[in-house]
Amino acid sequence: MKSKYIIVIGCGRLGSELAVKFSQNHSVVVIDKNEKAFSRLVNKNFTGFTMTVDTNDMDALKKAKLDKADIVYIVTPDDNLNFMLAYGIKMIKKEINKEDLRIVARVNDPMKKDLFQRAKLELFCPIENSANQIFADFKGADEL
Amino acid sequence: MKSKYIIVIGCGRLGSELAVKFSQNHSVVVIDKNEKAFSRLVNKNFTGFTMTVDTNDMDALKKAKLDKADIVYIVTPDDNLNFMLAYGIKMIKKEINKEDLRIVARVNDPMKKDLFQRAKLELFCPIENSANQIFADFKGADEL
């Protein structure tokens, strides 16, 4: 199995879960502006690196070695920040000519999905994932 | 197709999505403590009912005719409130002898899942749903 270099931006509930699980088989760097966020990784067998970075500062983000990364997950709870980061990293990706870098952003508010799609950003939406699962479960349970 | 009576507690991003979609084929009552929350249903072809209820007041919740309901989705963003509501409605369910009433609660913090499970509450966790989908997508894209 080939090991990838994965960057996770935002070490909240979702980010910490991704970081822990991916770090079992891959090189993971997890970034948060707040050092305390990394307490979520304690006692979880996290084997990657943490980096405290002001996520509003695109230049600081370059420290994460985007040129070496295979995939970046942008999963803070702030949609506006996620959008800005995804867009900014997409620009860096062009600058450094790194076509195979995947950038995946979290969208919390389904109303904002359209904006992400127009900017041609790869996204996922936890609310919609859950809604879809609830509908599937509902149908399964009631045989509709 | 048999139409069900579905109660959705919490008209936020997830609750409003469920309410709109379920109301296409079922009787839906969506409850929120804040009337403004129902603005999420505007221009969405929602055909159910809204009810402004203090969700901290279990007695007030009885107005939602739990005895007539087939399923209750408790999907506020507040895990503690969701736990309290799920537990309270489970008690009402016993009182009124309504064994076939399904109660499904949202858990936002994966750390709290255990508590819900110990109380034998049916739950789902948007963060985990998304994490699982991300792992599946990651494997799909990279053929690991």
From TrEMBL, chains A, B:
Pfam families: TrkA_N. It comes from the Bacteria. This is RCK N-terminal domain-containing protein. Residues 3-128 form the RCK N-terminal domain. It comes from Tepiditoga spiralis. PANTHER family: POTASSIUM CHANNEL PROTEIN 2-RELATED-RELATED. GO terms for biological process: potassium ion transport.
